[in-house]
Amino acid sequence: MHYPIPRTLEEMTALSQQPVNGDLVASAIAGVITICRAQGHSLAQVQEWVLAEDDLLDQKTRQWLSEAVAVAWSTVDVAAVTTGREGDR
Fold first, then answer.
1. Distances (CA, A) of 66 to 19, 71, 84, 85
2. Interior CA angle at 29 toward 27 and 73, to 5°?
């Protein structure tokens, strides 16, 4: 199943009602990137937030997620972010 890339916090929240699978996680990461870019945040800022100490993820998992965000940042269609349209992904 393919999920659309969330463009709002409400759409991100709606994802939490879905069963977790790889497509959902990819959609959530793409949504975070889309929303952060639209708000003018940089990759470095997003990675800093991901790497921040928390009670949900251990350091190894946060590092992996930070690297996944960096890869996704370079592949999420910038045109889709600015125009509100996704490519055929």
1. 23, 9, 25, 25
2. 115
Helix H, strand E, coil C: the string for the chain is CCCCCCCCHHHHHHHCCCCCCHHHHHHHHHHHHHHHHHCCCCHHHHHHHHHCCCCCCCHHHHHHHHHHHHHHHHHCCHHHHHHCCCCCC
Amino acid at 26: A
Whether the predicted model's global pTM rises above the 0.90 cut: no
pLDDT digits (tens, 9 = 90+) for 28-58: 999 999 999 999 999 999 999 999 988 999 9
